[in-house]
Amino acid sequence: MCKSYDYFLNPQKLKLFPANPPKDATLKWFMGLRAHSIRTWEEMKTAFLENYKDYCMPHNLKDEVLKMM
């Protein structure tokens, strides 16, 4: 999406995030963020990845971690 708008700067990416609203559970997460709690693209990226880190983990690595428990 950023590429199609030639948005390569982080402030531009941050503005585009709500313009392309997420769906379902991600939308609920996004709408649940405190007002003005995200001021930079780095804060958005960190918050998003922290919330969805389990989904980003490679499956084989996740299986290995679960075996240790």
Could you give a short description of this structure?
Helix content is 61%, strand content 0%. The chain has 69 residues and is an all-alpha fold. The protein has one domain.
Explain what the structure shows.
Helix content is 61%, strand content 0%. With 69 residues, the chain is mostly helical. It has one domain (10-67). The chain is globular and about 40 Å long. The model has no long low-confidence stretch (mean pLDDT 77).
Proportion of residues in helical segments: 55-70%
Cα radius of gyration in angstroms: 15 Å
Count the domains.
1
Q: What structural class is derived from the secondary structure elements? A: mainly alpha
Considering the chains and any ligands shown, give keywords for the structure.
69 residues; mainly alpha
Chain-wise SSE layout:
Layout: H1 10-19, H2 24-31, H3 41-51, H4 53-56, H5 59-67
